[in-house]
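Entry
Fold in token form

___
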Amino acid sequence: MKTKAQVLEEFENYQILIDAVIERIGFNSIIKVIYSGIDAGYGGFIYYVDTHNFAMTYRDKIVELLEEEAQHLVTTVEAMVRNFGIFRCSPMDEDDEKDLHEYLSGGTLEAGTITNMMAWFCAEEVCRFFVDTEYDDL
């Protein structure tokens, strides 16, 4: 697993997200667990009030991270999000589509599935920054 210094050197543009995620989950072996999926619930990422506040506070950087990942996967952010966790089993409904558009465009929205998914996406991606898949035994 990479050190925080190594991660910050490689992903300095996301330092605010790295610090925010580590502040909530700590810096330990849980990073490897979250790397595989956060849906088990971890401190600061369990309740909608927490995930909503996180997603709204760090929205600009989360959207930037979404766009970077979508570009890497050669898809759109919207298409990528439609394949996130809960939406794989139960497709986005009209309200989720509206909330996603509001989130991405800087609009106001209430706590719900989209802001929860944005916070979880961010936590998972930040944890991926720390995992050196070439050397870490996942």
